[in-house]
Amino acid sequence: MLTYIQINAAKPREKAWNLSDSQGLYLVIQPNGSKLWRFNYRFLDKQKKLHLGGWPTTSLADARVRRDEAKKKIAEGIDPALEKKRARIAAKYAAANTFEAVAEEWLVKCERDGLAPVTVDKIRWLLAKAYPVIGSIPIAQITPHEALAVLRKVEATGAFESARRMRSVLSRVFRYGVATVRCDKDVAADLRGAIASPKVKHFAAITKPSEVGALLRAIDGYSGHKVTVMALRLSPHVLLRPGELRQAEWADIDFEEAIWFIPAERMKMRRPHRVPLSRQVIDMLQELHEHTHWWKYLFPCLGKPRKPMSENAVNQGLRNLGYTSDQMTAHGFRAMAATLLNERGEWNPDAIERQLAHVDTNQVRRAYARGEYWDERVQMMQSWSDYLDELRDGGKILRPTFPTARRAV
């Protein structure tokens, strides 16, 4: 049987040579000086060899323990070399199926499914906070406690809404892992209620008519960049979400029919949407057309015109006008319109909801309420632009009648 002194004194030769221990265990001394433990055994009448590690990382005592464990497996009818190979393959498979690897694969799928780039970026931002905690762990091995640790880390910063969204994102990644046979269950599903609920905070919006008039007058007097000015002027009239507005393309505008078409992939609810264009909106679009018609986007980014206007451009314009984030936001123009249109009581609430591109949360009602209220929306949007002009001018204007035929531009 070998001793530590013998092993330590063994020197490399021109060719590999062996030092025998006992019961099939021996040490191979390589020409480069490395010393490797091997175990020879027979399994199903075949001579086989098992690698047990290198010395001194694997000591003599450790090598003998591993040899004895291998002999026990052989007695149980298990080939230790084959089992080791399978374990190595499983470890390699697990490494390729870490939470981060599965999450990145899911993100690619989201992009192919047409999820808005800004939404993908927000999800990627959330996942980047999860990776340091669970990113390197095989997704099938992640426990609810480890997923909760991710949420607690975000919650500790006071970002309760981000923590809530993080749980939803984690859940979607786990569900994708289940669907692609990388894990057995969504461990984030059981974490509902485990973190503090965020207080609902609505987008700040001006809804008092006199204050709306003052805002419109301030916008008309804004001396910022032309693209930002036009985005501010159009925002109150078209009832679009800020992302839908800034990503608008000239190909979406039909001046002849006076309709703004928005494809499903650029809508939050992934449904195509139409905006009837009032005479005021058409005039503004024609004015904007003179400045940006050679670019793809109505509102190209300053300095990078092949990209749409910055996500924060309209909000920054409002700040430059002196309105704080607690007073008015880009998204607040929708709340302004929804409030005043409903208060005036002239239009079917469903028509207003359709124009806001809201989806009825009642599935049964949504299944039967398929009308688009288009004719009413055409009249409503012209009336709304007239009303905004009235508020801006601080007085009343004569309301036009609405002929059946649309004015061609």
UniProtKB/TrEMBL annotation:
Q: Which residues form the Tyr recombinase domain?
A: 201-381
Instruction: Report keywords, A-Z.
Output: DNA integration, DNA recombination, DNA-binding
- Tell me where in this chain the Core-binding (CB) domain is found: 97-178
Q: Which GO terms describe its biological process?
A: DNA integration; DNA recombination
TM region(s), chain numbering: none
Extract the InterPro entries matched here: CB (IPR044068), DNA_brk_join_enz (IPR011010), Integrase-like_cat_sf (IPR013762), Integrase_catalytic (IPR002104), Integrase_DNA-bd_sf (IPR038488), Integrase_DNA_bind_dom (IPR025166), Integrase_recombinase_N (IPR010998), Phage_int_M (IPR053876)
**Mind listing the GO molecular function terms for this protein?**
DNA binding
The UniProt entry's sequence similarity note says: Belongs to the 'phage' integrase family.
Name this polypeptide is given: Tyrosine-type recombinase/integrase
Native organism: Sphingobium yanoikuyae (Sphingomonas yanoikuyae)
